[in-house]
Amino acid sequence: MPKNNTKTKKVEREMTLEDLLVTKLKALYDVENQLVKALPKLAKKADHEDLRRGFERHAKQTEGHVGRLERGFDILEIRPQKLQSDAIRGLIADADWVIKNVKGDAALDANLVAAAQYIEYYEIAGYESALAWAKLLDMVDLADLLQETLDEERETSDELMELAIAEVNERALGDEGMGEDEEDKGKEDEKEDKKDKKDKKDVKNGKVEVEEDEEEEEESEEEDETPEL
Ligand SMILES: [Fe+2]
Q1: Is residue 95 within 8 Å of 115, Cβ to Cβ?
Q2: 159 and 201 both lie in a single domain
């Protein structure tokens, strides 16, 4: 026999789309507040001036995102509340790892962009879902607020990637970042240079006679065949 049959089972109603929207706003509120603290750290570590300015600008924008979410809670007539997002804490922890472990200014910049892109895409995904639900629920004012923030997140992500492709990644590539083919070619050039120097030295010391190589002979033959005008 079951020991305790007297416990009343808690009956929970199914969640509505509005419930999901509120839950998402609370999670985004936590995300944005976490980023208000984290983004200035990324800005401080960025070496490239445009990257640093970009992070600083987005840190300021993020304060605005917090404000917009608070206006959103106002519209829904609920008090602003955070729902802890483990994901954003993980992404920020990854960015902290990059700051601590990636050596060299150029390499760090390239990896800061990569870390920030994870964060931006995560935010974009959250706002896209929230916006779709707000639209479906005909919450026009809330949808407008979410759209404004979503546009800024997308713009930031695009700017970061453009800067990475145009400058930051190239700087990280540096001299050591040559591809295998280029590296092999570099070694060959170096060998040839050494051989040339040795040959010249030998010629100077009278050790060898200078011989025209085959290519030069061919060239001279071709020249011989050219009729005089
Ligand atoms: Fe944001």
Answers
A1: yes
A2: no
